[in-house]
């Protein structure tokens, strides 16, 4: 048998602990699959004395990253520390020292993909990142290898388990947003800073990675239009249910007129759609390929062992030599890759849900319809429940539109918000059909 594959972990939080546990509990299985022993040689942490959820042999623990760089028997550095500053410096140092890199760090790839992939190519080393998108769901390999004969035409994905958990809890149990968020944090799948989960940043980082593989688009996270779930209200979840839809935080990318449209936003999806049925903290990715048609991948998008499953699969692929081949031909974040350009969000066509709080008086509805008609937007349905006679308070008016350009819809909403009968800013969501 070939020599052992020497591994260093940098960071030993939830994911790192899962990797240590898997390497220690399944040595025979992993050796059989890798054709080499996967040997953990160093675990770099900030605090060696900190209590961890797995026991790490004391002689492996170090707070000195340099010992990893100078150990010739370490071939792979697993960056599992998170963050983008120190993590980036360590990834670049590991590559320069001739180590392959496995990372679960989606923010790092989305922010610094071109730089670190160029560094890897220059050093003739490989970066593997199955765990960076959708935790335990093998979506990177599916896209880069199994669907390689396809041009992907659309991706619709639930890529943030925390947001999906919160929206599911609000819809099914009627609990307020803040209680659902606190529960997600207690269960341990929220980021250290849960703002990144609920404001759509985490999903945007993951979408940027998928879009690079599927479309060759090098979108920086700030170029992906992003709306979070912080302002989703119970009233809209109720109206969505009444109309036959669920509200899901979707990361979407699709080919439109030779460009790729990209966004992360709460979107209304038909209740019968498979994505509407993805509950709790699960992730799901619906991919359409021009050869294969529609596919769906679903599974745990976070957590200790699901994410460790992906990290260790990368280690096995490096040990076998498969990862190096894929890395070489995929040419990710390379100047040689000519991908699609990004469709300006104003041009993206969609159906829309629009909820207004309107004073129930003659002409209110006519004014709203006029503002939509001025932008050429056609109404597909309209809901206003009967209000008590003589009611002088605002009532909800819900409008579903036919397909319209986002820019035109936004212009109509600006005009509607200025109408005297409108009492609160309009609430709107894209509707996927
Ligand atoms: N915090 C992320 C989520 C998991 O809730 O999906 C790690 O990417």
Can you describe this structure?
- Helix 5 (106-122) links the parallel strand 5 (100-103) and strand 6.
- Helix 1 (14-25) crosses helix 12 and helix 5 runs parallel beside helix 10 (201-215).
- The strands form two sheets. Strands 7, 8, 9, 10, 11, 12, 13, 14, 15, 16, 17 and 18 form a twelve-stranded mixed β-sheet that branches.
- The model has no long low-confidence stretch (mean pLDDT 95).
- The longest helix has 17 residues, at 106-122.
- The protein starts with a strand and ends with a strand.
- By secondary structure, the chain is an alpha/beta fold.
- The chain has three domains: 5-137 and 306-330, Rossmann fold (3-Layer(aba) Sandwich), CATH 3.40.50; 139-301 and 340-345, Dihydrodipicolinate Reductase, domain 2, CATH 3.30.360.10; 348-432, 2-Layer Sandwich (Alpha-Beta Plaits), CATH 3.30.70.260.
- 38% of the residues lie in helices and 25% in strands.
- The structure holds L-homoserine.
- L-homoserine binds at residues 160-162, 189-191, 197, 202, 301-302.
- L-homoserine binds next to helix 7.
């Amino acid at each position: 048998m070939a020599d052992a594959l020497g591994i260093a972990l940098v960071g030993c939080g939830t994911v790192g602990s899962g990797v240590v546990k898997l390497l220690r509990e399944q040595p025979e299985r992993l050796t059989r699959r890798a054709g080499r022993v996967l040997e953990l040689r160093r675990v770099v942490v900030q605090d060696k004395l900190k209590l961890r959820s797995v026991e790490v042999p004391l002689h492996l623990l170090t707070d000195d990253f340099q010992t990893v760089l100078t150990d010739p028997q370490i071939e792979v550095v697993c960056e599992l520390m998170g963050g983008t500053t120190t993590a980036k410096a360590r990834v670049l140092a590991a590559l320069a020292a001739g180590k392959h890199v496995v990372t679960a760090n989606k923010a790092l790839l989305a922010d610094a993909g071109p730089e670190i992939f160029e560094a890897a190519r220059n050093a003739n080393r490989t970066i593997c990142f199955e765990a960076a998108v959708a935790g335990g769901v093998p979506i990177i390999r599916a896209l880069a290898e199994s669907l390689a004969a396809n041009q992907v035409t659309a991706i619709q994905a639930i890529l943030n388990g925390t947001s999906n958990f919160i929206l599911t809890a609000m819809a099914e149990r009627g609990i307020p947003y803040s209680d659902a968020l606190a529960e997600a944090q207690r269960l341990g799948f929220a980021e250290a800073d849960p703002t990144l989960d609920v404001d759509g940043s985490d999903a945007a980082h993951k979408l940027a990675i998928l879009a690079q593989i599927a479309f060759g688009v090098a979108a920086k996270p700030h170029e992906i239009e992003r709306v979070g779930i912080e302002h989703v209200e119970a009233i809209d979840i109720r109206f969505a249910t009444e109309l036959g839809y669920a509200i899901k935080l979707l990361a979407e990318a699709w080919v439109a007129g030779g460009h790729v449209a990209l966004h992360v936003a709460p979107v209304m999806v038909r209740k019968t759609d498979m994505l509407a049925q993805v509950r709790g903290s699960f992730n799901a990715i619906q991919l359409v390929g021009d050869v294969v048609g529609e596919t769906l991948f679903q599974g745990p998008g976070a957590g200790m062992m699901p994410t460790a499953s992906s990290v260790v699969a990368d280690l096995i692929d490096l040990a076998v030599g498969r990862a190096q081949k894929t890395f070489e031909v995929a040419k990710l974040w390379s100047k040689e890759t000519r991908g699609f350009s990004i469709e300006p969000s104003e041009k993206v066509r969609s159906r829309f849900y629009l909820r207004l709080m309107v004073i129930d008086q003659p002409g209110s509805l006519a004014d709203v319809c006029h503002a939509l008609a001025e932008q050429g937007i056609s109404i597909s349905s309209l809901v206003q429940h009967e209000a008590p006679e003589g009611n002088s308070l605002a009532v909800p008016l819900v409008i579903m539109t036919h397909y319209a350009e986002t820019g035109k819809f936004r212009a109509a909403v600006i005009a509607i918000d200025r109408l005297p009968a409108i009492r609160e800013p309009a609430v709107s969501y894209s509707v996927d059909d």
